[in-house]
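Progress against Task 2.4 (sequence-to-structure conversion) is shown through the following example record, which the project officer requested during the mid-term review.
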Amino acid sequence: MKNPSEQSVLLPQAQKALLNLNAFYTSGGQDLHALNSALAQAESLAIGLRTAYETAYRDVSAGRDVPAAPILRNAGGRISVNEYGWLHMELAMLLPHCQYKTPRYLIDTLERLLDGYAQHHQLPWFSKALLVIDEWSNIQNRRVYDQDNKGWKAIPNILKGRVLADDDQYRLEIALLSRQDEQPSCHIFILPAEDADAFFTLRSGTFGYPP
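Structure tokens generated for the chain above:
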């Protein structure tokens, strides 16, 4: 946890880093190594600023009956539970290429969505669940096509202990889906395993996409 003096140094550094990253982005650079490095810096900066925000909020709220920082509106997605008890997280991004490294930004985003929701509502609990990861993309906005090259394996670990006891094969079934769409996004559903037929009936389009 950073103290106020460290935070006062962090913000100018973050602003400078953002300006440098924006300059690189607008220059249209195509060097793969440089792009990967810039992406790692941007993700690390976003996570650091999120943490700094929560720390500053706790400091300002000291002595008040405020247990934690409110849900960040720009956390990179949204979360809801429908009338069937299905948990739905929608991300404004596609699954990252894992490239033998931990997808830190994806993990941080999902953890904040789940923990932020739990501040004000009770998360559902599943004894046996179906995890559906449904990516919406097209050929223009998706260049990683093989499922084993995507960072989806981090998602079950995030769910463990939050909405289910364990992510072993007998308590968590997994479906990796996709559909073509011009607007890239990723829909993550967790629902009772016995509701699988109802989910896929809804997803077929006959009754509309699951809420």
